[in-house]
Design a protein that fits this description.
mainly beta; Thaumatin; 6-stranded antiparallel β-sheet; 5-stranded mixed β-sheet; 3 helices; 8% helix
Length: 223
């Protein structure tokens, strides 16, 4: 298949009670899909076509407000104060749906390595291989340890990872802990795993968190 030919269809669905502003960050040298961001109302569904060999990540921004020029801010997942992220990533903490497609297989995962902001799930269709659905449906903000909470008007908007908060080698898998045999689950990462067993919780989490599929399209659901 030729580069540039639409190979994968991502369908983004908002099942939250409020608006979500999906952010999309492409991998290095990959196409910037839908200019990297848009508004998605409750129960709204939008399809995004990705070219052959695309890679990148999706996340949900919450509590956003933008003016007519597309400038503004989001309470969580903000990508530099603009509606269209245009290649920029979201500010942690944000629940991530990560993909590499047609390489030659598709690889995908849900990552909470930097923390959690909104429930997210991935459901493949039409592919071959393992092709299983992944879900982080629990609202981790409701049971987030106080030391990891990010508050707005006394409401927990994000649950950051221990690495983001404490920035120590044992939580970030750096320095002497920069190898799987040394960097192990912690009480904090175990809370994430209990709530969302399908998700990556730290840098060297179980490799079964990555799913391999071939030739599928993907439904990404928020809440």
């Amino acid at each position: 298949m030729l580069v540039g030919v639409s190979a994968t269809i991502f369908t983004l669905q908002n099942k939250c009670e409020n608006d979500i502003w999906p952010g999309i960050q492409p991998g290095a040298g990959k196409d910037n899909l839908r200019n990297g961001g848009f508004r998605l109302g409750p129960n709204e569904v939008v399809t995004v076509n990705a070219p052959y060999g695309w890679s990148g990540r999706f996340w949900g921004r919450v509590g956003c407000s933008f003016d007519q020029t597309g400038k503004g801010s989001c309470l969580t997942g903000d990508c530099g104060g603009v509606l269209e992220c245009s290649g920029a990533g979201g500010a942690p903490a944000a629940s991530l749906a990560e993909f590499t497609v047609n390489s030659p297989n598709d690889f995908y995962d849900i990552s909470l390595v930097d923390g959690f902001n909104v429930p997210i799930s991935i459901s493949p269709s039409g592919g071959t291989g393992m092709c299983k659905s992944l879900s982080c449906a629990s609202d981790l903000n409701q049971n987030c340890p106080s030391s990891l909470q990010v508050l707005y008007k006394k409401r927990v908007m994000e649950c950051k990872s221990a690495c983001m908060v404490f920035n120590t080698p044992e939580y970030c898998c750096t320095g002497a802990y920069a190898q799987p045999s040394m960097c192990k689950p912690t009480n904090y990462s175990n809370l994430f795993k209990e709530a969302c067993p399908d998700a990556y919780r730290y840098a060297f989490d179980d490799s079964t968190s990555i799913v391999t599929c071939t030739g599928a399209n993907y439904l990404i659901t928020f809440c």
